[in-house]
Amino acid sequence: MKKFQIIPILAILVLQFGCSKEDETITPVQDTNSGPPYVPPVHKINDIYFLDANVGYFIGTSYDVRPAEMGPSNPYGPFTIIYKTTDGGNSWLEKSKFDCGFNGNFGKSILFTSPNDGFCTTSCDGLSIWNSFDGGLNWPLKIGGGFYSQGISTCNIDNNTFILGGTITRNNGQSFSLMSGLPYPNWVSSYSFSDTTYGVCAATNGLIRKTIDLGNIWDTLYNNPSYFFNSIYLTNNNTIFAGSNGEILKSNDGGNSWNTVYSNPNDLIKEIEFVDNQIGFAVTTGINCDSYIKDCPSSRNGKILKTIDGGATWIIDYSSNTMDFYCLKIVDQNNLVAAGINNDYPNIPILLHYY
Predict the structure, then answer these.
(1) Exposure string (b/e) for 169-197, b if CB count within 10 Å is 16 or more?
(2) In angstroms, how far is CA 180 from the centroid of its own chain?
(3) How far apart are CA 44 and CA 57, in angstroms?
(4) 62 is in which domain, residue-wise?
(5) Each residue of 222-277: pLDDT tens digit?
(6) Which residues have C-beta within 8 Å of that of residue 317, sequence separation ≥ 6?
(7) 167 within 8 A of 177, measured Cβ to Cβ
(8) Which residues of the chain have pLDDT under 50?
(9) What's the number of domains the chain is made of?
(10) What is the spatial distance between Cα 113 and Cα 183, in angstroms, rounded to a whole number?
């Protein structure tokens, strides 16, 4: 029988460092001698990406005490954090920690196209795109502001072509252009492609759209403003899953009709992924606790859902009273990693290794 191993990630409370540094492991430290009152860090992990079965990254937002070089914003953040694993998620090292201005920086999504070349998106007065050339140690700004900041998702289609937020590159990140025909770009929360031309996207305003020409044209498949879609996933061109506020919807005919296959009004479905066409997982947060700050500790009840019959039925495979899950990644046939925000002191992120 499969089981979960809980892997804690150490809290970050080191005050002085920059974007350029050696890899380091960080241990919790409480400074009671000077400076502002000690506040435990709050880390929300928003996205996980694996290059292969061993090498992966996660990106999130920290409310730790800000290093002085980040400027005079709120002393407790926010700023982007990026960690890396080289052993399939069993251990993680901090790679980078950076900001982009007075209003702070919310780490949203991340992908790598090679061991050295990576891209991430942050919410910083609009969508900002950052590009690493050294395996995630340094992140020069590629595009700053000017796009839309909500639902900044990524989708790697073939390493040369990938989507960051509402933008697409077809030349491995040398240039980006806005895609037309999407739901208003700051509402797009998720993309999924089954091949190099056919894909779907979901939006928080209840829209699901498809493209058959790699994002040049997007046509509406479904429109119901009562749904707040956070995730969409294709297992093939006909079978689509969409996760929303309290429900997982499934279509067996390419989006012409939809059925509810999971329903719980207390769950907000954040991400769906499949191992194959039969086995899949989804992660949830509490419906009233979709937040990166600890304003609703009594409401956290994140779950990991599982299906073994192609998404026809779903069971609760893991649940937590202190954690909400915001993202998951299938590493290989036997391993997945899920993460989000954890309420237990000192509010460290926890990754669950399924094996």
Answers:
(1) bbeebeebeebeebbebbbbbbbbbbeee
(2) 23
(3) 14
(4) 4-354
(5) 999 999 999 999 999 999 999 999 999 999 999 999 999 999 998 999 999 999 99
(6) 281, 303, 304, 305, 306
(7) yes
(8) 9-40, 149-150, 290-295, 345-348
(9) 1
(10) 27
